[in-house]
Amino acid sequence: MQSSGKRISAYAVFKAKQNATPKKEVRGKVQKPEASTPIAGLIRQGQGKLKKLRESARSKKTKKAVKRSEGTVGRLQADNMDVNDDDRPSSRLSSRTRPTRTEAADSKPRGSSQKKRKSPYTTTPDKGGRKKVTPTLQPTEPIAKRLKYQESGNESTIAGPSSSVSDNSLKRDSHQHGKDVFSWLISPFKVEDYFKNIFERKPLFLKRHKPGYFTDIFSSKELSNILKENDVQFTRNIDVTTYTDGKRETHNPTGRAQPQVVWDYYNNGCSVRVLNPQSYSTRVWQLLAALQEFFGCFVGANIYLTPPGTQGFAPHYDDIEAFVLQLEGKKHWKLYNQRSPAEVLPRFSSSNFTDADIGQPILDTTLEPGDLLYFPRGVVHQASTPSETHSLHITISACQKNTWGDLMEHVLTRALHVVREENIDFRKSLPTDYLNYMGVAHEDLDDERRQPFMKKIGDLFSKLLKSAPIDAAADQMSLEFFHTSLPPVLEEAEESCSVFGESASCRNGKVSGIVQLGEDDQIRLLRRNILRLVPEEDKVLVYHSLENSRVFKEKELQYFEIPPELAPAVEHLLHSYPDYVPVSNLADQLQPVNDEIADPEDLAQTLYEKGLLMTKFKLEPSVSSSSDGHREVTIHQSR
């Protein structure tokens, strides 16, 4: 093949210094061993908690009967509010209003830190002893869209991958499919209108009058089956909680969540929170896997089952965009404005609030099956069930720590790493006396040495920004997405055109059913966001999410290495998606090494066998072992 006139890939000429990834220490939370407690003691503690709950439940039933006889309406006091665990956040949902903990905020995966970093000078008055004035926020006006009741309009299918064989699954763009799923969630609101007028700005409430709209996603019956058929563990997979008389409590015993134990807690007034339900529910997995392709970041979920007349969580706000989908029963929600600009799109979730902290609600409404409620991160919320019915809802969370600020953190870190090696100005020593005139204690001094020092800092910042490796920083930002992503859910047609549909086997020592790609076979990536090329020093790493677990971050980040000269061919597959390209086209992208070009069929075969590619048509292989030990392969393409 001729190599002249070929595009020189960025991967073949990248600078090692600019693209080298600084070694980053991975730090995890170290769990302190719990103090040893005799097993009998633990059992007695659990039995004691449940006994108290039962006694409390009996007492409440008596009080409720008295209140109902007196005509008391609107049981939305603090003792009925849904609140998050401060010490163990789950997938979170939030909105742009005041801070309050609600169920929506609890959709964040465990392990995320909520602690805010406090400056040692936060209590210091402004210059001259003047008090700092906090600007006030204009009240956010939520949008409530009430659709006309349609008695025959209950039917709806979840807008996720179906189990049927369909040519559409072989042609569609996974990003567009994710957008279609999101469009179905917020219908009849348009996606473009949502991002222009609603997203990160104000809550959105959709009253559908279609009880069956979300029926296919999840049900309390499915939860019951999950408890029976799976090793669901308290604290790791499920919580039982109460919020009464302004006190938020988690009543988790240790060990497996046996159905009888969970339902006994529920009968005695506890809310049941299922963490990361996609681990057990295929339909939830389908929904979230589609949405993550559209949002380009981790999309999580929690499910909440709340008994009648109770509240499981306190008022609070979260650090995620929250989408509440009502599945069964009813839930009464209250949303509140943020109290200060610092609470608009916060980086961390809040602690629990009291009613005195949050003022008057900007939205006070009841969700029924088929309804949707969205609120941005930072919006204070709380929710409770009416006395006559239970509630089952799923909270979908997105956009956690996926901001411009998070990207800039990577940009500046990598830029500093590069510029310190390339520019001697960053390696020169600081003035010997700079501590005598720089620092908070010296900021009010009229010292002539301060101005040149500040100018020097400004000059260095200018040089730093000129060296900013923005694309490399975006690659590093993407790795968190790939680590947290769910693996794709494949339709039957997709499986049949990929390595997952093969029937390779060995019987009596003879191998059959192996597929070997040829140069005329049409191929494409399995999903738009299935892999990421990241150059590191003298090699290129291919990160992917295909082998991820449905359990949040259960596995390490998955990757494999390829030589830099092969990267342009993989890049070509990325740019061509969702179109199929012949295997032979990859040869036009490969760079010669020692006047030789790698075999494109070898590269395609490697990607195919790793599950990252699918073919346009199902390949019908026929492989056998000959008597002389040579492997004979014949491939017939079915069209």
TrEMBL record:
GO terms for cellular component: nucleolus. Keywords: Chromatin regulator, Dioxygenase, Iron, Metal-binding, Nucleus, Oxidoreductase, Repressor, Transcription, Transcription regulation. Residues 273-415 form the JmjC domain. InterPro entries: JmjC_dom, NO66-like, WHD_RIOX1. This is Bifunctional lysine-specific demethylase and histidyl-hydroxylase. Residues 22-32, 100-109 have a biased composition (Basic and acidic residues). Its EC number is 1.14.11.-. Binds 1 Fe(2+) ion per subunit. Its cofactor is Fe(2+). PROSITE patterns: JMJC (PS51184). One of its GO terms (molecular function) is histone H3K4 demethylase activity. Oxygenase that can act as both a histone lysine demethylase and a ribosomal histidine hydroxylase. Coiled coil: none annotated. Residues 151-168 have a biased composition (Polar residues). The keyword Ribosomal protein does not apply. It is found in: Nucleus. Residues 1-173 are annotated as: Disordered. It is an enzyme of class 1 (oxidoreductase). Belongs to the ROX family. NO66 subfamily.
